[in-house]
Amino acid sequence: MGEFFQQRQELIAQDIKDLALMKPTELEILANLKLSQIKEQFSTQYSIDDMLDFWSIRDSVINTRLFQIFKKMPKGAVLHMHYGGMLPAVDVLSILKNDPEIYIKTIDNCPYIFSSCQTDSISLTQYLENPENEKTLLNVLETNREKSVGLPSECWSSFMQIFTSTLSAFSDNRILEKYIELAFTRFYEDNVQRVEFRHMPFSIQATETDGLPSENIAFLKNVCERFTSNHPDFTSGAILCTIKLFSKERIIKETEEIYMLHLLFPKFVLGFDIPGEEEKYREDEDIFGDIHRISENAKKSGNHCPIFLHAGEVVNKPGPTVYDAFAIGSKRIGHGISLIKHPQLLRIAKKEKITIESCPISNMILGYVRDPRVHPALAYLFQGIPVTISSDDPGCFGYSGVTHDWVWIYMLWGINLMHVKKMIENSIDGCTEPEEVRRVWEGKWQEFIEYLANLEI
Ligand SMILES: [Zn+2]
To answer: Ranges for the Adenosine deaminase domain (predicted)?
Structure first.
């Protein structure tokens, strides 16, 4: 072999070493071939431009063979998901309108608020007597093409209105029960083995005198456990959150309360996070310094509450919170888009196996990475950093589960079945119950590979 080709071969060998893919089994080789043939069929129906215009094909893509195969694929754990963003508008409205005790009112910064409070409101049933109003509400409860243009901050404001509309109704136990049941059913139908969802246990109008919301968390825990007792191959837990935009005093108080809730419900309250629009975060207030102090004090008394921070969900700013996330010892990073600018943090992420919770469709819609083909998570994956795939707030984007995200990256990232398997295994390693989820997932993966390898093309 000539010197040039030898050098070229060495470069290729070194390059794929970092990714450290498992050697595929004979059946996986065959399954991968079948999947790539189905991908070719899909490409005759949908172009790259169609994939980049999410809204144009979001619903029709569900009928394709490729989508149905990815729906069937056992996906391990979904690590990044927000309570309140799990179900699309049509499902949310069907839950709300079947409850005679739900009322609707309008306030200045948000046109429609659903709640069980009657004051200054009209009943939802009465409001829906005019069929046009149903269309209005479906529009309020989802983002769409028109609302997702422009800079991320513009997309965020319409996106946050969805959460503001439903927050009060969703914290009502009657609604919460139906909401969790239906949302988990959607993930279960997507062959997801575990969901670790973010949840804000405090009311937006919280006051100084509000007690610890331990009864609400106990209720939520029971609802989640009931789903598992009916579906033993599915488990869940909650990462409790306060929000970046709150005052520093409020953030600190709620962080302390979340640490207490972790102590009360250690198996169910999986950890702590502080999401919110990162570009508006007030870096100068040193909130994370105080959170670090709370965390260290809790550890000294034996309360190890893991931290799973949203960080690096920015484009034009340097992203100070990525440093906070690493310095505070976050076990996983929500999004991590701006990590691409921080080689040292990427080295740490690889060495310490810090999981990246990537949400490609959310990033596309909110304007952080409009073209998933150049999503930084693809670069992280090939560097051997544990990348995982989640759907963040699929309901707000008009779908449920996480299959859309897998189809989009499979079509746009130039990856094969072994890369997909690697990211699923990353999700299992990165979740809080890896042994249990792996035990359930392994048999399902084998079954899926046999099914795929034997498919007639
Ligand atoms: Zn998120």
So the answer is: 155-439
Listed in sequence order, the DSSP H helices in 387-433 are: 403-412, 417-430
How confident is the model over 251-305, as pLDDT tens digits? Answer: 999 999 999 999 999 999 999 999 988 877 777 778 999 999 999 999 999 999 9
Q: What's the gap in Å between 381 CA and the centre of ligand 1?
A: 20
Residue 244 CA to ligand 1 centre (angstroms): 12
In three-state secondary structure terms, 393 is coil
Confidence of residue 445 (pLDDT cuts 50, 70, 90): very high
pLDDT for 318: 62
Distance 275 CA to ligand 1 centre (A): 7
- Look at residue 118 and tell me whether its pLDDT is greater than 90: no
Residue 354 in 3-state DSSP?
coil
Rounded to whole angstroms, the Cα distance separating 131 from 13 reads: 62
Q: Calculate how far, in angstroms, residue 302's C-alpha sits from the geometric centre of ligand 1.
A: 28
Report CA(132)–ligand 1 centroid distance (Å): 32
**What single letter denotes the amino acid at residue 90?**
V
Per-residue pLDDT tens digits for 52-65: 999 999 999 999 99
Rounded distance from Cα 9 to ligand 1 centre (Å)? 41
- Tokens standing for 6? 């030898």
CA of 211 to the centre of ligand 1 (A): 26
What is the whole-number distance in angstroms between the Cα of residue 441 and the centre of ligand 1? 25
- pTM exceeds 0.90, yes or no: yes
Domains of the chain plus CATH, in order, are 71-84+191-445 (3.20.20.140)
Distance CA 149, CA 240 (A): 30
Burial class (CB in 10 A: 0-12, 13-18, 19+), 40: exposed
